[in-house]
Amino acid sequence: MRDLGVAIIKASLKRGDQILAFVRRNSKKTFRLKKMSNLKIVELNIDEFDSYNLENLEEPYDVFFHAAWSFTNKIDRDNPVLQEENIKYALFK
User: What is residue 47's DSSP assignment?
Assistant: First the structure.
């Protein structure tokens, strides 16, 4: 989880919003969110998102922010095949 996602979540929580955050499994940065109220965390990898049933959410959510991106190190950023995977995950069916 990058700093942008954490900043969006913290700003939304300050407003009193209810947040459902999808975070990468075994992320070393998830600890920054665990102690926050009004926050539900679902751990899954980006390639698992399609299998998560959004229609069965306990409560409705109004806004969706997508800040997930893989292959962000210097070498992988220049690899068009890997970045095509990121683009695929950013497109919703």
Answer: G
User: Helix or strand or coil: residue 79?
Assistant: coil
Q: Report which of 19, 14, 41 is spatially closest to residue 30, judged by C-alpha positions.
A: 41
Contacts of 5 (CB under 8 A, 6+ apart): 21, 65, 67, 68
Q: Each residue of 8-18: pLDDT tens digit? A: 888 999 999 99
Distance CA 72, CA 91 (A): 18
- Confidence category of residue 92, pLDDT binned at 50, 70, 90: low
Instruction: Give the count of beta carbons closer than 10 Å to the beta carbon of residue 35.
Output: 7
The dihedral region occupied by 39, where left means phi > 0, alpha psi between -120 and 50, and beta the remainder, is beta
Residue whose token pair is 């989880």: 1
